[in-house]
Each structure stands twice: as C-alpha cells, then as structure tokens.
Please model this.
Amino acid sequence: MKREFEEFIKGLICLPIKFPGTRLYKSLKAKERLVKMVEKILKERKSGMAKTGENSVVNDAVDVLLRDISEEGDDDEQGETKEKQSLPLDYISGNIIEMMIPGEETVPMAMTLAVKFLGDSPVALHQLMEENMELKKQKMNCGEDYSWTDYLSLPFTQNVISETLRLANIINGVWRKAVKDIDIKGYLIPQGWCVLASFISVHMDEENYEHPYRFHPWRWERLGTAVNNNSFTPFGGGQRLCPGIELSRLEISIFLHHLITSYRWVAEEDHIIYFPTVRMKRKLPISVTRL
Ligand code: HEM
Model:
C-alpha cells in the first residue's frame, strides 16, 4: 500500500499528459489500485461491525465513516420510516486516501524540515530547548500530565513552527478554475481558465518578510502570532482552508517537545528540493541518542 501511495503522490504535481508510461498515468493507475486495497479493508471492517452489532465501539475515522448515516426507525419529512443507509464505499475510501496525505506527507515533511532548519540554526535550537525543558520541569515538579492546550503556552515553539511552514512551502500553491469570467484587481480571468495561487510568492516576498530566505523564528515576535491571512498561507485560504490547521500545529509541537527534551541528534549532510514537491534529497538521515 505504501508503494502505491508513493506512486500516487508523485503524480499530484506533474505534467497533465495521460498515456501509458507518463507520470500522471502511473499515478492514476496507482490510485485505482489503492482504492481497491482500501475498499477491501473497508468491506472487512463493515462485516466485522455487522457481527458485533450497533453497540460496537467506534475506534477511528473508518468506524465513524462506516456508521449508518440515518438511524433505523427515524421518520423522514413524508412521515415514512427511513431505511438504514451508509456512505458509498468509494466515497469513504476516497476520504481515507485523502487523509493519508497529511499522515504521510505534509505533517511529517514539516517535522523533517523543522529538524533541518533547527540543525542549521543553533541559537534557535537552544531557545527552543530552554522553553520546552521549562514546561517538562513544571510538569514533573507538580506531577501533572500534559494537557491539550499546553502547546499554546510555548510561544517560541509556535514561532519556530510558523517560520518552518513559511520557509518550507510544503504546499507551494493551489490551482483554481474560473467557473465564469471574473475580474480580479483589473485582470480578467476568462471562464474555464486555471489560476495558480502561488504560496511561495507570498512567503518569499520581501514586502511581506524581511530577508525572506532566512530562517528567523524571532520575526514572529514582531509580526504577532501567525494566523492565516493574505501574507501567511501555508494552509491555503477561503472555503478550502485546510481543516487540519490546528491539528498540524499540535502534532508538530508534540514531536518537537519530545525530540528536544529527551534526545539529541546529529543530522547528515542533505539539502532541500523544492520542485515538483518539497522534500529532502536523502530524507535527512539523523543519528539520535537518548539524554
Ligand atoms: C503542515 C501540515 C499541512 C499543510 C501544510 C496543509 C496544507 C493544506 C492546504 C494548502 C490545503 C488547501 C488545498 C486547496 O485549497 O486546494 C489543505 C486542504 C486540506 N487539508 Fe491540509 N495541510 C496540512 C495538514 C493537514 C492535516 C493534519 C489534515 C487532517 C488530518 C489535513 C486535511 C486537509 C483536508 C481534508 C483538506 C481539503 C479541504 C477542502 O478541500 O475543503 N491537512 N491542506
């Protein structure tokens, strides 16, 4: 499944030419095989749920999506009893495959690039360590567990994450198609034309960020907490704004907190590739030792 997923991902940004042998063709074929694999798992889960009955425990997103969407015995607007009905399996498997993208690609890539940028910036690394060590000590002293909102009490960590997202441009832009003729700031976009909203252009614009190519988390102390706006768009914007915006920050904060307070690492020489998608040339090999 991992192999098919990787093949599918390679075609997300590629030349739109579809015949056997092209990147797009291979990607679409891999997606078809992936859908079949996921559907097989869904069918097994569904029959397992049928055996355990209505009271089976909901463990994950698959269970939620597989649940019947209308309750047995509910009446519809005409007063007739509704049939039990599920979301179509291909719809559910499409959703599950879409969720693999943040699980496998965007969030892990943000974590990897944070490690890379911090490795190249010892001062930021030191400040991040101090802030996180302080929280760890507090928790140990009062014997408390971490709570959901602890990550928000680490301002420098949040600034490191914002700066990583700005500089990394993990999603470098999004495409939109004009459904009708539209005028944007005096430019006519004819119906049917595509527009690339380039996030790199936003994040690397000197008018928005001084020395934009420099990893400088302290800039956010002056700019204020990074919220999604016209000059900070790692999660897109408008109606299609990424719903994983806070979950991503939470996951990256947890990863950085444990990495920095429990381990030390040495990264091997590697460099970032920005096209067609952002990645490390050698996947950033690191040697990790426990503190
Ligand atoms: C650093 C991590 C992430 C980045 C940089 C990122 C970026 C983006 C961007 C730019 C879009 C907009 C795409 C468009 O406008 O066409 C998007 C959409 C989306 N993201 Fe994320 N994302 C991240 C993490 C996540 C996570 C953790 C989840 C959920 C678990 C998630 C779920 C989604 C979904 C479902 C959409 C589609 C929304 C829609 O079409 O209405 N993302 N993401």
